[in-house]
Amino acid sequence: MPRPDSTARPYRDGVPEHGRVPKSHTVKMRLLQLMDELGEDALLPSERELAADYGVARSTLRAAIGELVMEGRLRSARGRGTYVAPPKLMQPVSMGSYTEAVRSMGLTPSRRVVTLEHHVAKPDLAERLRIRAGDLTVHVERVLLADDEPIGLESTYLPLDRFPTILDVLRPEGSLYRCLQDDLGVVFAEMHETVETVLAAPREALLLETNPALPMLLVMRTSYDPQGVPIERVRALFRGDRMGFATRMRA
User: Fold this and answer.
1) CB-based contact 20:53 (threshold 8 Å)
2) 180 and 211 belong to one structural domain
3) In this structure, which of 6, 127, 137, 195 has its CB flanked by the most CB atoms within 10 Å?
4) φ, ψ for residue 21, nearest 5 deg
5) Distance between CA 121 and CA 131 in Å, rounded?
6) Domain-located, residue 152
7) Last residue of a domain, one of 63, 84, 105
8) Which residues, 6+ apart, have CB-to-CB distance to 172 below 8 Å?
């Protein structure tokens, strides 16, 4: 039997085949073990203590902590130290509202309005909504919160001709999905969604109360009714350190 090709799988359990592991990775593994022992929301010992215990320079320790912060496993609070972060919120990839998804996690959803306006559709948006460039849309932009913590920034665009009364019936802090279904009789039949990693623009990072250097998850979605007519175009930016997505697939 031929030997496995190690070049096709250069890493095994985080360790390169050549066996040379950066010190920061070793420290990271030890920190993960410590975090399991301490538990959620526990305060880590000081950098000085940890560097001494692990026998490494503080710069090496900071590199390991920085990776764990970017991954959302640790949270740093200026002047207060570094804490073990709670688990990420995992939102199902499904045709449902943010409200329902957050409630299913045992948290309280809410929204903070940023923008409610009429917006002129540029060619790309017009193509997605199958309207003419220059037509008016309704733009609803809100910060999504879970237990009052900013998690995402969502911008939704709807054709004004189709939904002329949406701003009259929408509760700004409520579910737009539910408003469209229950108040306007809209039936959602299909959605096309993409997810990619990006960095937040300064304005977005400010609204999300996060570091612009942390990775974000950008969700772009177009929803359709049973006749295949676009209902909405959504751009949602989620904090990568606090949010993930889950789906179930069957053969």
Assistant:
1) no
2) yes
3) 137
4) -115, 130
5) 8
6) yes
7) 84
8) 111, 113, 116, 142
